[in-house]
Amino acid sequence: MIEVVDITKSYTIGESSVHALQGVSLTIAQGEFVAIMGASGSGKSTLMHILGMLDVPDSGQYRLMGKDVGKLNGDELATLRNNVAGFVFQQFHLLGRMSTIDNVMLPCIYSDERRDFRSDALARLEMVGLGHRADHRPNQMSGGEQQRVAIARALIRDPMLIFADEPTGNLDTKNSHEIMRILTELHQQGKTIIMVTHEHDIAAYADRVITMQDGKIIDDRKKEDAGRRSEVSGEPMKLDHQPLFKPSRMLGFVKQAFRSIAANKIRTLLSVLGILVGVASVIAMMALGSGARASMEERLKSMGSNLLSVRGGSAKIRGSAQGSGTFTRFTRQDVEAIAEFSPLVRYASGYVTGTAQMVYLNRNWSSTVEGVGIEYGKMRSTIPTIGRWFTSDEIRSRRKVAIIGTTVASELFGNDDPVGQTIKINRINFRVIGILPPKGFAGHRDQDDAVLVPVTTAMHRLLGRDYLNSIYVEVTSADRLDAAKEAIDALVRKRHKLQPNDEDSFYIRDMTEFQQMLSATTETMSMLLGSIAAISLVVGGIGIMNIMLVSVTERTREIGLRKAIGARRGDIMLQFLIESVGMTLTGGLIGIAVGVGVSVMLSTFAGWAVQTSIFSVVLATGFSVLIGLFFGLWPAKKAAGLKPVEALRYE
Ligand code: ADP
Ligand code: MG
């Protein structure tokens, strides 16, 4: 069954190298019970690890049932171990988090068979006399009992080979003999058993004793009555690979992952907290950002998005040297001409502005007076909700009526109702007919600190001007903005008989520049908020990675055991990835709830504009999975790359 030829193995520690095996050749037939003896350090374990396919020799040949084991890669060896070998170690290597029966079933999750193995496991436990302890934890059992559980685990996959490295090394005499009785029984059932021991009375159970010294076999003798091995037909070796991502297999891994997450509650909680805070802040920040954008857009809409303003003077010199250059002075006839401009223009309104002193009883207030046309109310959304807008008759006949902003109203009237009252604007009596809808601040300017009067009244009675400061034009649709600009430009040139070189005497401006500036500002703000949140997510991810690395180190022996009983690289990798994604996803989902909660609180208690979107929830979920994958990858790779023997030896 087993045939090794001229096997060598050496270890290098710093400068010196230890030749653990120096040319070992050995043949073991099916059904034999072999004991390997020798002094400590003679290479017994090394040999057993190689025979058990837990380790590979430096040189030499190993044939198992005629198959060249040396040609197999790590995953194929793992599958082989899972199918043909069972291991019993001196240190038992049971997983403390799991019940006895789960420990016994552990090799099954790495097999390709899918069914409920509980009854199988229970049968094995009964065979070693522990059927009644199935739900106990390993740490509730004596050493002898634990080793019997380990034997039950070695048997769960019905292996042909059983490897036992000093199985009685940690046990007292009574328990040792109980273990040996079980092994003898297995031998009688036809199992091939290879056992390392340094006690003669233990070796006496075997029917062949091999003695080693300094990495060589120095003695190999069979008992007289050996050879009564039962006829067992060798099962065909199963080496075929099934895909890793079989749903049933995944389910087993997910269960394992959650068990180990649950085993370290406080630690898991703390590292999940990092992700939770990160995701919650992403959600809340994005809600704030889009809330800000939405309220900005709302405000832009009230400014009129299809709006053009036509002004006298040069666009270039406005602000600094406005006095110089020529001005086109617009009149109400210009407004009418532009207003006729269908289908490009929907509304047009003349506009004049100046400052004025307002008086009501003994109160004084200086504010901006704006003279506007009938259409201005619709164009700039300034139609009062308290009181009313101007009538065309009032505008035509220069009536002394005013609509005042909320700031002016509270300065002059306090809590009294201004509508219907008479105020003096530059010593002229005006009747207040309405209050402007509040608009808030635009930059430093209080948009509510203004008084609207008919444009005619403002020009001829208040400000003493016969021209308009500008003309506001609402274009029928935003995509006609440029066409409208050109048409109005041509019209104004024609009406004012401008020469081509008089270009700077008026200019047409649209609101898009202003809009772009505003949306760029909100964009920057959202980006800023978003990146702060993203940073906290990354920090959370690093926390997860840290805890996963600790976990890998802590569970090195567990990983070694899992590999010994047949876990492939991908299995271990998947287990750790599922654990880290499980943690980040849990944190993510709770974080979403917290983030939404915080957003709602911000809007109800602080009155901030927030807008939670499904998109941000999906994004945050996706991100927490990605972070789990990304930051779990390195620890998982580290775990998967461990060599079974080294991992098992890890202290
Ligand atoms: P035994 O099981 O017979 O006591 P081992 O097979 O464990 O002996 O070890 C044989 C020799 O190889 C010893 O000298 C031991 O120090 C050395 N050795 C075993 N494993 C390692 C290792 N991982 N690194 C370095 N040296 C090792
Ligand atoms: Mg040893």
TrEMBL record:
Xref: Gene3D superfamilies: P-loop containing nucleotide triphosphate hydrolases
Name the GO terms of the biological process aspect.
Answer: response to antibiotic
Q: Which UniProt keywords apply?
A: Antibiotic resistance, ATP-binding, Cell inner membrane, Cell membrane, Membrane, Nucleotide-binding, Transmembrane, Transmembrane helix, Transport
Query: CDD domains recorded for this chain?
Result: ABC_MJ0796_LolCDE_FtsE
**Name by which UniProt lists this protein:** ABC transporter related
For the ABC transporter domain, which residue ranges apply?
A: 2-239
Q: Which domain of life is it from?
A: Bacteria
Membrane-crossing segments per the record? 269-289, 527-552, 573-602, 614-634
Give the UniProt subcellular location, in the record's own words.
Cell inner membrane
* Keyword hit for Zinc: no
Read off the lineage from the record. Bacteria, Pseudomonadati, Chlorobiota, Chlorobiia, Chlorobiales
Q: Which GO terms describe its molecular function?
A: ATP binding; ATP hydrolysis activity; transmembrane transporter activity
